[in-house]
Amino acid sequence: MADCLSVLREYRMTKKPYKVDGDMIVFGDKQWPKDTKTNYIRFDTSDQVEYYTLYSLVDFLENKQKPHPTYVTEATKRGIPVVRLPDRKDLESYLEGITSFSSRIDRSAPLEFALPRGSNKRASNRTEASDAKKSKLEENKVPSNDTDDSSTPVNSLAQAIPLEKLKELRDKRKKVLGKTIVRETDDFEAPSNYVENRLGMEPDEAIKYITSKERVWRTRATILQSLGSKPLAKNVSAVLNSVKALEGGSAAKADTKSESNTKEPKDAQPTHYNRYDQEKFKSREDTEGFKIDTMGTYHGLSLKSVTHGAAPKSAPVSQPSPAARQPAVPQKRVSKTPIIILPGGTSCIITLFNAKDILQDLKFFSTEQKRREGTKSDAEVLLHRSKTVNGQTVSIPYRVVDMPSKLTMDEWERVVACFVQGPAWQFKGWPWLLPDGSPTEIFRKLKAFHIKWDDLPVDKNVQKWDVHVLNINRSKRHLDRAVFLKFWEALDRWVSKNKPNLRT
């Protein structure tokens, strides 16, 4: 069952009506007393933990447009606990659905469950009602002269029917219940001819018939379970032999036949030297340093050419192809420069006009301001980020583009971040896009960011996606540097974990 704070947030997000009815606050078929404590911790400088009541939150939401001093004055006059100033923004964002989590909520706090609609009294009042009911019954109770243990309290039915008639009806009811209720000690006994009636045979014959139809359930798991050395060896060896027969084929048969022919008996005598069996003496294949071509032949040469020392014909040697003689062409150097993708529209907060100012200089200038200054938009921007590594300041380049359709697959592997505008059509034509048009797989391949004004709600699509939201103020420019540094911190963590081969 949901707590009152969650129900109030649900009704505020879905615009459902709720009302204050006397001492109760009604949400549909549920209701809570006004002084019900929520699990939202009130801001307090002391160590004491206190929670806001449900009525104080409802009154705050109805008067949130008023200045805080005016709201405090009016709530104090009505005797309603006020929401303190440090809790206003966080509490309003959580109850209106702008944020999905609040650090001020105590998940371990005891909660009061909702009361059904129509019951406006708590459990403490129920005891008073039960006491009043008991006193009323005692007043209406009429003393009876009957000392029997089975006597019934006197009411309108007892006054209409004599006591003797009631006793007779009670005894009759007991007899009927004794015949219909089955005792727990009664054991169920199946009829002896149950199997015979179903199969048309004697029980022993029926059991033999059933066992003859049984089959062992054999699956991949049961086959691998060892039931003994013989069954396992039989099954596995049969499988291995069949695999060998399929892979080896006739070659395996030929190898086994040649091996059987080359086997010599153990008692065979050692062979003696034979000048015509030189191939058997493999240890003498070495020419002992003499330049003798063992593969050469004088077949087809004349006697004159042989006597004058013409070189014998040698076995043909494969000549390398012209392509192989050419020196190896050095491979193209693989770029390690990371890429950041921006939205293509000019209505976005960050574009190619101001990307260098925001990401490199950590200063915000609007696109309209850059256009008035005469800044021209290029096809892409190369920015240099200064970073301190081991006490030395280094400059790391980043490519910033807004036309992802021109990127190759090698360049897509170097994409580390993108700025999300909100609509799903922004990712049309991107790799890793799911068939239903969902970009969730894209956000696993790169880090997604969404930059917006802090006074506007988060886009519905952005809330569902894995996107890091950056909030900037419309007028307070001194806060921009801290926001843009959070962007680089989040990007560095993601790149070091997922794409450490890039230059970061």
Write up what this structure looks like.
There is one protein chain. It is flat, with a radius of gyration of 46 Å. A six-stranded mixed beta sheet has the order 8-9-7-10-11-12. Strands 1-2-3-6 form a four-stranded antiparallel beta sheet, with helices on one face. Strands 4-5 form a two-stranded antiparallel sheet. It is an alpha/beta fold and 504 residues long. Helix content is 37%, strand content 12%.
Write the layout of secondary structure elements.
Layout: H1 4-13, E1 19-21, E2 24-27, E3 30-33, E4 37-41, E5 51-53, H2 54-62, H3 68-77, H4 85-95, E6 115-116, H5 123-140, H6 156-160, H7 163-180, H8 194-199, H9 203-212, H10 220-224, H11 229-248, H12 250-262, H13 303-307, H14 322-325, E7 339-341, H15 355-359, H16 367-372, E8 380-389, E9 392-401, H17 409-412, E10 415-419, H18 442-445, E11 447-453, H19 460-464, E12 468-472, H20 480-498
Uncertain stretches: 142-154, 264-268
N-to-C CA distance: 49 Å
Shape: flat
Beta-strand level of the residues, as a percent range?
5-15%
Mean pLDDT across all residues, rounded? Answer: 78
SS-based structural class?
alpha/beta
- Biggest sheet descriptor: 6 strands, mixed
Compute the number of strand runs: 12
Helix content: 25-40%
What is the topology, as strand order, of the major beta sheet? 8-9-7-10-11-12
Computed CA radius of gyration, to the nearest angstrom: 46 Å
Number of helices: 20
